[in-house]
């Protein structure tokens, strides 16, 4: 609030009153000056705090930038991926044994090729996994486990045959049976209305159940059963079906449960989403595939992965 600083002209007969008024104005002026000083002091303190805050934020940002630069520098100069430092103990003579051919497909860590055995001319499938992408020890363990699983299931008629594992300085190579009949998914889509007859579906489902039974017999859970992970040995209509891609598979002890969420959204079991899954999750996935074979569509659908998960949980007795 503004205070008038001009004096009022009064007559001499009111000099006492004038003095009182003058004193009043002087006191008022002092009070106002004091209030202004206090306001300025508060403003200065506020500005000072704001400035200090800005300085701290600036220093923090500079520190983060330096740390980021150091991290990038370390990445560029140096930390060797775990895969590069690991001797897997596999044979080292891949190039002497095989010739790499055309690309079949690729995943997160590597590529799958057709390769030819130089000794007999047989064609095989080779999964070529880059060691540089195995940053953490868990990635190394995943590769070792997949090889161990293929060895454990070797000889089963509905699992791709495992031939050997190799390595060099840059890659791990897994040589397997070549299946040229395409994915089960492609066969489904090629059917009229994308449906199998009950008789034909029974043949397919029986083979998938054999795979699940063999896995569970060895204390294994596949954890990613879906039409894309089943291949036909040949293009013949009555070709045998082979399970492949055991990258998410794992061993489990009786009575124990997995607590992580893995698999493909449309085929994942409710127990997986509840973080307490076991061998039964493979049976659920086969049930979903059976539904697709007979009905030509998925039992659960949504635009988002979260939406699919909700559908699975709300219809766990489909």
Automatic annotation (TrEMBL):
Presence of the UniProt keyword Chloroplast in the record: no
Alphabetically ordered keywords of this record: ATP-binding, Kinase, Lipoprotein, Myristate, Nucleotide-binding, Repeat, Serine/threonine-protein kinase, Transferase
Organism: Citrus clementina
Compartment list: Membrane
KW Acyltransferase (keyword) present: no
Record protein name field: non-specific serine/threonine protein kinase
Ranges of Polar residues composition bias in the record: 1-10
Family per similarity comment: Belongs to the protein kinase superfamily. CAMK Ser/Thr protein kinase family. CaMK subfamily.
């Amino acid at each position: 609030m503004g205070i008038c600083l001009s004096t009022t002209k009064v007559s001499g007969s009111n000099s006492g009153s004038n003095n009182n008024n003058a004193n009043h104005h002087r006191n008022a002026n002092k009070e106002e000056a004091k209030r202004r000083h206090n306001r300025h002091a508060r403003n200065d303190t506020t500005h000072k705090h704001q400035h200090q805050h800005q300085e701290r934020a600036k220093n923090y940002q500079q520190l983060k930038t330096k740390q980021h630069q150091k991290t990038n520098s370390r990445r560029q100069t140096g930390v060797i991926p775990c895969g590069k430092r690991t001797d897997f103990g596999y044979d080292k003579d891949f190039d002497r044994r095989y010739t790499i051919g055309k690309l079949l497909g690729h995943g997160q860590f590597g590529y799958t090729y057709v390769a030819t055995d130089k000794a007999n001319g047989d064609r095989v499938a080779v999964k070529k996994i880059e060691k540089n992408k195995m940053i953490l020890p868990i990635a190394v363990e995943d590769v070792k486990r997949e090889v161990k699983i293929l060895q454990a299931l070797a000889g089963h008629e509905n699992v791709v045959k495992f031939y050997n594992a190799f390595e060099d300085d840059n890659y791990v190579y897994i040589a397997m049976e070549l299946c040229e009949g395409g994915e089960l998914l492609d066969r489904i889509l090629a059917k009229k209305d994308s449906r199998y007859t009950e008789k034909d579906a029974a043949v397919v489902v029986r083979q998938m159940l054999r795979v699940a039974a063999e896995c569970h017999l060895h204390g294994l859970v596949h954890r990613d059963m879906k039409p894309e992970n089943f291949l036909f040995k040949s293009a013949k209509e009555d070709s045998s079906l082979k399970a492949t891609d055991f990258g998410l598979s794992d061993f489990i002890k009786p009575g124990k449960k997995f607590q992580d969420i893995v698999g493909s959204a449309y085929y994942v079991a409710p127990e997986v989403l509840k973080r307490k899954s076991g061998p039964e999750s493979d049976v659920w996935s086969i049930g979903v595939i059976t539904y697709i074979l007979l009905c030509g569509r998925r039992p659960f659908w949504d635009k988002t992965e979260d939406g699919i998960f909700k559908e699975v949980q709300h219809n766990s007795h489909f």
